[in-house]
Amino acid sequence: MADIATPHINPKGAPIADTVLMPGDPLRAKFIAETYLEDVVCFNEVRNMLGFTGTYQGHEVSVMGSGMGIPSISLYSWELYNTYDVKKIIRIGSCGSLQKDLGLYEVVVAQGACTDSNFMYQYNLPGTFAPLSSYRLLEALQAEAKNKGVTTHVGNILSSDVFYNADETVNERWSRMGVLGVEMESAGLFAVAAASGAEALGLFTVSDNIVTGEKTTAEERQTAFTTMMELALPLAAV
Questions:
Q1: Cα separation of 5 and 40, whole Å?
Q2: Of 25, 39, 101, 208, catalytic
């Protein structure tokens, strides 16, 4: 299957693993491949959305950028699931904390993903679809976190289509509903996984706290979120 090209992925015969880690930033994908994987090959360079396959602790795993927003991650995840027979996609990204006591660099795991996107409309469902992560992957992730002594925060996140919102009250309203943080992709990923009969999980490092105004730099977001990466990589063996 890896010799087939889609409009957005062209492996040119390079392998794509059953498990794909997807940061938003393709340079973060490159960092993960160079830092953690052995026997690395590049399987995608189309539009500079870099993808790599290698081994981690003896298990084959791929890592690929998703770009920003539900439209971007949904097209890449659809092609990975449906053309390349990928079984699991783990989004590893950053999020803005919507809770005052959820500080920089803490790890959030998405049990579910609220959204202001109209992405679910395409499925023509007779109600509101609740995009959820794979409980099997979530449970395995939590076991890995316990083994490593890492505290995670599991709950609801918001996948928003809007970064610069004209309504300045929205974050406070989501926060009152107990939503832990905001990002821009996971609801779409979870929906595509459900429609494809596959698995997905989202975990995030807090890059900024929207309540307190604390934030990290772009360089830190690219290379310093190693705890999250080291929790996600062993899921290739699950």
A1: 20
A2: 208
* Global confidence as pTM: 0.96
119 by DSSP, 3-state: which? helix
Active-site annotation holds for 208: yes
* pLDDT tens track for 112-133: 999 999 999 999 999 999 999 9
- Do 5 and 16 touch, CB atoms closer than 8 A? no
Q: Which of 88, 105, 119, 95 is nearest to 234 (CA)?
A: 88
Reported as a single tens digit per residue, the pLDDT across 33-58 is 999 999 999 999 999 999 999 999 99
CA distance 221 to 94: 7
- Which residue spans within the chain are E strands per DSSP? 19-22, 38-44, 51-56, 59-64, 88-97, 107-115, 152-159, 181-183, 199-209
Contact predicate 70/121, CB 8 Å: no
Nearest-10 Cα torsion for 15, 144, 227, 197: 40
Enumerate the β-bridge partners of residue 52. 42, 63
Instruction: Identify the three-state secondary structure at position 81.
Output: helix
The DSSP code for 132 is: B
For residues 210 and 163, the answer to whether their CB atoms sit within 8 Å is no
8 Å CB contact between 129 and 113: no
d(CA 232, CA 202) in angstroms, rounded, equals 9
> Using H for helix, E for strand and C for coil, what is the string for 55-78?
EECCEEEEEECCCCCHHHHHHHHH
Take residue 162 and report the two structure tokens written for it.
Answer: 């809007």
